[in-house]
Specification:
alpha+beta; Immunoglobulin-like; Rossmann fold; 33% strand
């Protein structure tokens, strides 16, 4: 493991973080495909990467390699999908970051790999911000995903070549090899959090204490050791305690799967010294924590022609060990939770006369949708999939019905008693009809529709129904009853309700962001009560359209 990357010397950004990170591929893809009649076999594949005998492009040190992964689309377009961390001073890197991809057996999924030497001046920059044209190419390769997963050990070794040489010459110059290892992911929601420490580490430096860090690797069936996690480097410390590390059970296989925990002394030249190691499973580490007794490190030592494990006085301790189960959106759906969609539309006069083309409510005879219709369709199309009866409460606000006062929550279908319409088409028809049966007025008040939605959610909760409600509010301007709206939102924060506010038109919606507590400050009511959670998401439609 002399090539393990590190976070010291001002190079934290490019060389990766503390815990292992994977490229995300949503578990919901399978459900999405099936909802559209596509029933192909879909597995999640985790790809690990290592390379050997890379070209040395640095003058005074070795290359600092990073791998970039691309997918070649059916139309020939090449799209970047993933970058590893940078491994410092290594011609034989083993990257820790993994890429997860959905595997379709019936589709040829072409992957392109390109290894770059990251110039020293860019090592302070986050990997995702690096400009690839400013880095030196160490070689590239390509294959189909099916080529990897059909190998007996699911590992494929590819020759790295330079692009110009692979085109202009039938025999390309040797530029090293890239090995790609595939494992099928099995979903696990359990994450183990550990705080590790060591005692009495042996010094590897002549004039100072060691600079230790840990690398945690899993052992696969073929005997290959694959790094999954590493700690930060602690300077001059014989008794280090590292920050907590997080391991998903999926990452390591199972709680009883063998793990190798190696303690290294960091060296800036990339040749890190192995201080010692232990081989334990997560279950073993939990027992070490419970027993409060450390585990002696050992160091493989060559005795004659045999390799023996020399037991060291240095010990590994597990200061904290805990497990948490994180339930996902799909877990709730599998448990029977149903999403219910509701919509409220702004009919205030600031939208303009709906009979004129410059109005946000203008109904184009050609069939071209206005901003309100687009927002209804784009949000509703997603949410209606999860709503079994597809009957949606739909309201308007800020208008004067025929021969009546201004209403800040009226049924969009014109009924006095029934607020639901059938499907997205029903919302569209009720919306168009309302434009010819109300007079646009004002002001812009949200409190009434929020309270109406909250009442429906609270009634459902009282009936112990497994329902979660999403209210879409579409508006063209800043809310007038800001404090009343805050009071309603704080009161509703205990209910199974979320609110998506979409701003249409060219107004300045900065004040609307007050209702969206994304910056960490939860809403507070006029009585001083703080919202139990953030239930509002505000987005200008012009930023997310399509």
């Amino acid at each position: 493991m002399g090539n393990c990357c590190s976070d010291v010397g001002g190079r934290m950004a490019a060389v990766g973080g503390t815990a292992a990170i994977t490229g995300n591929q949503s578990d919901a893809v399978d459900m999405y495909l099936k909802s559209r009649g596509i029933h192909g076999i879909l597995s999640q594949i985790e790809l690990s990467f290592s390379a050997t005998n890379l070209r040395d492009r640095d003058v005074f040190s070795k290359s600092d390699p990073m791998l970039v992964v691309y997918i070649k689309e059916r139309d020939g377009a090449v799209i970047e999908v993933f970058r590893t961390e940078v491994v410092l001073n290594s011609l034989n890197p083993t990257w820790i970051k993994k890429y997860t991809i959905a595997y379709h057996f019936e589709v040829v999924q072409t992957l392109l790999f390109h290894v770059f030497d990251v110039d020293t001046q860019f090592l302070n920059i986050e990997v995702k911000m690096l400009k690839l044209e400013e880095q030196q190419s160490l070689g590239e390769a390509s294959c189909a995903l099916s080529e990897i997963v059909t190998k007996p050990n699911r590992s494929l070794t590819l020759d790295l070549v330079r692009r110009v040489e692979s085109v202009s010459s039938t025999h390309s110059q040797h530029h090293g090899k890239l090995t790609v290892h595939a494992e099928e992911c099995f979903s696990s929601r359990t994450t183990a959090e550990m705080m590790l420490s060591c005692l009495d580490l042996e010094s590897k430096d002549l004039f100072s204490k060691c600079d230790p860090f840990l690398v945690i690797s899993k052992l696969v069936e073929s005997g290959i050791s694959i790094p999954v996690c590493k700690t930060e480097v602690l300077k001059n410390d014989h008794n280090p305690t590292w920050k907590p590390v997080f391991l998903n059970i999926q990452q390591v296989g199972s709680k009883d799967s063998p793990l190798v925990i190696e303690c290294f002394n960091f060296n800036s030249n990339g040749k890190h010294d192995l201080i010692g190691k232990v081989q334990k499973s997560l279950a073993d580490l939990e027992k070490i924590h419970s027993g409060r007794e450390g585990e002696n490190l050992f160091l493989p030592t060559l005795v004659g022609h045999d390799c023996e494990n020399k037991i060291l006085k240095s010990k590994l301790f597990v200061e904290n060990f805990s497990e948490t189960i994180q339930h996902t959106f799909l877990d709730y759906l599998a448990g029977g939770v149903e999403l219910n969609f509701m919509v409220a539309i702004d009919f205030t006069a600031s939208n303009g006369n709906p009979r004129l083309p410059d109005s946000l409510h203008y109904i184009d005879p050609s069939g071209r949708q206005n901003a309100y219709q687009k927002a209804i369709y784009e949000v509703g199309e997603v949410l209606q999939f999860y709503d079994t009866d597809k009957c949606f409460p739909a309201w308007g606000f800020g208008a004067r019905p025929i021969d009546g006062p201004v209403s800040h929550c009226f049924n969009l279908n014109g009924s006095n008693n029934y607020c639901k319409v059938e499907g997205i088409r029903g919302i569209m028809m009720a919306y168009t009809s309302a434009l010819f049966n109300v007079s646009l007025a004002g002001p812009t008040l949200f409190g009434h529709v929020v309270n109406k939605a909250a009442l429906i959610a609270s009634q459902s909760l009282a009936d112990e129904a497994q329902k979660y409600f999403v209210l879409l509010i579409i508006t063209d301007g800043v809310v007038t009853d800001l404090q009343e709206t805050k009071d309603a939102l704080v009161k509703a924060s205990d209910l199974p309700l979320s609110i998506l506010i979409v701003g249409v038109g060219g107004a300045d919606f900065k004040e609307m962001e007050i209702l969206d507590a994304d910056k960490g400050e939860r809403l507070e009511s006029s009585t001083g009560r703080v919202a139990s959670r953030d239930i509002v998401q505000f987005v200008p439609f012009r930023d997310v359209q399509g």
